[in-house]
Amino acid sequence: MTSFSRIQYIKMAGELERRLEQFAARWGLDTPKPDEQNRYDLVLDGSLRITLFQSGDQIYLESHPGSLPADPRQAGEQLGELLRKQLAGLERHEEVLSMDTSSDDLLLFRRIPARTLELADLEKAIEAFSNRLEFWARELSGGSSRQAPLPMHIVFP
């Protein structure tokens, strides 16, 4: 690694920390503190836990929306349905749903470049990520992802 590359790498290494400080200040939150692995936890709406960390010139957002059912047949059916929905949404969403095969836990993650990250970019990424996290958590809990029909008094005044 050249001297210039090392300087750029060192400069990028604190990018997530700086942006999270700005994010917390803008939204009136306590500034998140890193854990021993230099990972930051954000809890949104009381129940959405998002972990953020930086590796090189990439920032990662990750969360666990849930697990597959213990019954292998149900797990297989649900996994097939989740895979179809994941593939259908790949063009519209940057978040990726994956599975830890050792525990049947599902992991949602997203990668964003640290080099060009502005506060507005981080806010948009966190918002999109939390929306997808809610979607997948609802899917795993057996809830419907379809929107409820409009109330009749709105359609017919």
Polypeptide structure, described:
With 157 residues, the chain is an alpha+beta fold. The chain has helices spanning 3-13, 15-27, 72-89, 119-140, 152-155; strands at 40-44, 48-55, 58-67, 96-100, 105-113. Strand 1 and strand 2 form a beta hairpin. The protein is elongated, with a radius of gyration of 19 Å.
How would you briefly describe this protein structure?
With 157 residues, the protein is an alpha+beta fold. It contains 5 helices and 5 strands, in the order ααβββαββαα.
Summarize this structure as a short list of keywords or feature phrases:
single chain, 157 residues, alpha+beta, Yope Regulator, Chain: A, 5 helices, disordered N terminus
What form results from the Cα inertia axes?
elongated
**What class do helices, strands and sheet pairing give?**
alpha+beta
Computed Rg? 19 Å
Specify the helix fraction band: 40-55%
Largest sheet features:
5 strands, antiparallel
* Spatial gap, N to C terminus: 69 Å
Annotated CATH architecture: 2-Layer Sandwich
User: Helix and strand succession?
Assistant: HHEEEHEEHH
CATH topology label: Yope Regulator, Chain: A
Oligomer: single chain
**Number of domain units:** 1
Question: How much strand?
Answer: 15-25%
Give me the count of strands: 5
Q: For this structure, what is the CATH class?
A: Alpha Beta
